[in-house]
What we know:
This protein is of the alpha/beta class. The chain has helices at 41-48, 117-120, 124-137, 153-164, 178-183, 210-213, 248-259, 276-285, and strands spanning 2-6, 15-19, 29-39, 58-59, 63-71, 82-86, 100-104, 108-110, 144-148, 168-172, 188-190, 199-204, 216-224, 238-241, 267-272, 291-295. The chain folds into two domains: 2-123 and 265-295, Medium-chain alcohol dehydrogenases, catalytic domain (Quinone Oxidoreductase, Chain A, domain 1), CATH 3.90.180; 126-241, NAD(P)-binding Rossmann-like Domain (Rossmann fold), CATH 3.40.50.720. Helix 3 crosses helix 4. The radius of gyration is 19 Å and the shape is globular. The termini are close together.
Amino acid sequence: MRAAVVRTFGGPEAVEVVETGLPEPGPRQVRIKVAAATLNPADAGVREGFLGDAGKQIGFGWDVAGTVDATGVATAWSVGDEVVALDPGVARPVRTHAEYVVVDTDAVATAPTTVDAVHAATLPLNALTAVQALDLLELEEGQSLLVTGAAGAVGGFAVQLAAHRGVSVTALAREGDEEFVRSLGAAHFTSGAVSAGSIDAVLDAAVLGETALEWVRDGGSYVGVRPGGEPASVRGVRTASIAVSADGARLAELAALVDEGVLTLRVAETYPLEEAAKAHARLAEGGVRGRLVLVP
């Protein structure tokens, strides 16, 4: 089968599509025939060597939508099931940017039925990051939340999920994105600074760090999206960061919210797998609204 990998760190030109062996599922695993897999900024980090393992073949991809093709023992999934999954972790020879991928059964959920596989593939990583970050914030209905980077992939899901929970959301984004983030459910919008201590919590998808922390009230909460990169606590503000984890049950809930129209999925462009390097180049250009998706 074919897979997109990197063996020498560098720019988009370092991406290779290689022939590799068909993976076999072990106990409590399934093999998915990939219909679509999303390219995320984390993949650029792998390509550039931020996560190490120089000299080894490393695969790309966190998200996948496709069809169960084979199962190991002790799994409730069946061949032919249409699914989505998060393939967590890094530094493995092959990941979801391939024709087939093996994942743990508890990372898998039934795919949304109201969207195609290309759109479904944009759900797992960013929506799970958003919902797990919101869980850390422990907000109650009626409290206020500032989402930085609200027009981005994680930020957009966070706005929708928080608004759905009855949280009053202020979206921080570029001026040109106001109409969009309000359409996601943001009650308030800003493209600049926020009054110090005026917000119950911040979900810092734009990684503003201490700047965003200053906007949180005394005793409030802050969650960032860079694992271990949260600022130190001040004024009793609880600070944390999210390291996304696979959770098939939670992913199933998110897929149901897609089918209910609560969550919208955004695709910017699609690329055939053999043009993975072109997709990386487009991501590196910036300004992408929605996700780039690879199709084997």
